[in-house]
Amino acid sequence: MNANVNPLRDPRDRRLPRIAGPSGVVIFGITGDLARKKLMPAIYDLANRGLLPPSFALTGFGRREWSTEQFAQVVHDAVRENARTPFDERTWAQLVSGFRFVQGEFDDDDAFDRLAETVQGLDAERGTGGNHAFYLSVPPDAFPVVLRQLARSGLSDSTGDSWRRVVIEKPFGHDLASARALDDVVSEVFPPDSVFRIDHYLGKETVQNLLAMRFANQLFEPIWNANHVDHVQITMAEDIGIGTRAGYYDGIGAARDVIQNHLLQLLALTAMEEPVSFDAESLRAEKEKILSAVRLPPDLSAHTARGQYGAGWQGGEEVRGYLEEDGIPSDTATETYAALRLDIDTRRWAGVPFYLRAGKRLGRRVTEIAVVFKRAPHLPFDLSATQELGHNALVIRVQPDEGVTIRFGAKVPGTAMEVRDVTMDFGYGHAFTENSPEAYERLILDVLLGDPPLFPHQREVELSWQILDPVINQWAADGRPETYQPGSWGPPSADAMLAADGRTWRRP
C-alpha cells in the first residue's frame, strides 16, 4: 500500500490514477509570498490527498542562510497557515524527509553546483529517478540567469527515461518583443514540451467547468452565438490595493498583470469552437484560432479605459490612493484599472463585442464571465408589465462562491401580469460534497504528470501580446490615467465606453 495515501480516502475517487511518479520539485523564490501562500501548501495538500509518491522531494533555493531543518520549519508554518486540507502528522513525516535547502544567489556558480549535487543525492537517497521540475517563482528579469545556470550546471539535462521540466510564472514578458526574447532563452535550455507556463486561473474548477457546461450539454450550445448573444462581459475585480507589491506592480499595471493572460484565456475558452478532444494539442488549436481572430476597434481612445484608484473611504476604512502607496513614484502612469472592447472575426461571434475589465479597489472581489443575451424579438405584454425586465444572462462565477447563475424573466406573484428578473443559482459548495482543489494543486500535479492541457503555449502568449500591445502604446501617448474612487466600479470613462455602444456594465 502507498504509505502516503490517506486511509480515510474514498476508494471511488477517480483522481487515484493521477498519482505522480517518482519526482521532485525545486522552487526558486522559496521565500516569496507565492511559495508561502500557494506552492508549499499545495504540495502538502497533494501529499495529504495521496497524489504524491512516497519518494517525493522538495528543494528550496534562496539567499537565506537556512539549514534544511529551518527550511522545514518555514514550510511547516506555511502549511499550518494556508493549507486546504487538515494537518496530518503521518503525511508531514513522509513529506519532510524529502526536504532539502540550498543557499545561494542566482548568479552563483558554486550554489548551482551544490544544487546539482543535492538533486543527484535525492535520486540516490529518495529514488526520485532523475525526474525534477524547476519552479521559477522569481521576477521575470531573473528568468534568463536562472535558466542559463540550469543549463551550465547540467540540471536541465534529462537522461534515459527521466525528465526535467521548468515552470514559469506570469508575466511572460512585458510586450510581444520581450515575450519572444524570453522564449528564445527558455528554448535554448528546455524543449517546448518541457516548458509549463503557469496561469493559475486555468486550474480553477469553475474555469474547467465552463468547458463541461458548454460541451457536455445540449442546452447552451445552440444559443452560444451571435444570433442570440448580445455581448459578453469578463470581469476580474479586487477590493484591495496593491499591498506590498509595489516593486512588481508599478510599470506592469492591470492590463499586463491580468488582461493579457487571465482574461484573454477566459475569452478564448468562452468563444472557442468545440475541440476534437480535450488533449493539450486540440485545446490549444481552438484557443489559438480565437485569439488570432480577435480584433481591436479602430478608435482605441473611445473603446478602452484606464484609471488609478485615488484616496478615500472603502468598507468603512480610509485608504490611500495608488500614488500614495509605499514605493510608488508620484508621477507614475501605471493603471490600476483597465477595460477594453474586443471583437472576434468569426461566423459564430460576428457583431458580438467582448468587454474585458480588471481593477483594484473596486466594489467587491469577483471574477466572472457574463454572457448577456439579446432581448426577445417580441414581448406580448404591456410596456408597464416589463419595465423592470433586463437581458437574460448566464454568469459563470470563477471566484469567490464558484458557480453559475442564470438570469431570466418571471411573473411577479399577484393578479397583474408583471414580469421581473429572477436568478437561478448553481453553487459548487451546495452541489458537491467534495471541496474543490486549489488551482495550484491541479497545476503542480499536471507538471509532475507531464499533462499540459491547462498551460498556455508560446503561440497563445504571442497572440495575446499582439492584441494588447497597441492598447498599451495608445495609453502611453494619452497621458495619465483617470482617477477613480475606491469602492467604486472604475473611472467614468469605463461607463462611457459601454454607453457609446448602448450598453452598461453588470453590477456583480
TrEMBL record:
The active site is at residue 262. Belongs to the glucose-6-phosphate dehydrogenase family. Substrate binds at residues 200, 204, 238, 257, 360. PROSITE patterns: G6P_DEHYDROGENASE (PS00069). This is Glucose-6-phosphate 1-dehydrogenase. GO terms for molecular function: glucose-6-phosphate dehydrogenase activity; NADP binding. The keyword Oxidoreductase applies. Pathway: Carbohydrate degradation; pentose phosphate pathway; D-ribulose 5-phosphate from D-glucose 6-phosphate (oxidative stage): step 1/3. One of its GO terms (cellular component) is cytosol. Gene3D superfamilies: Dihydrodipicolinate Reductase, domain 2, NAD(P)-binding Rossmann-like Domain. It comes from Georgenia muralis. Keywords: Carbohydrate metabolism, Glucose metabolism, NADP, Oxidoreductase. The gene is zwf. The keyword Chloroplast does not apply.
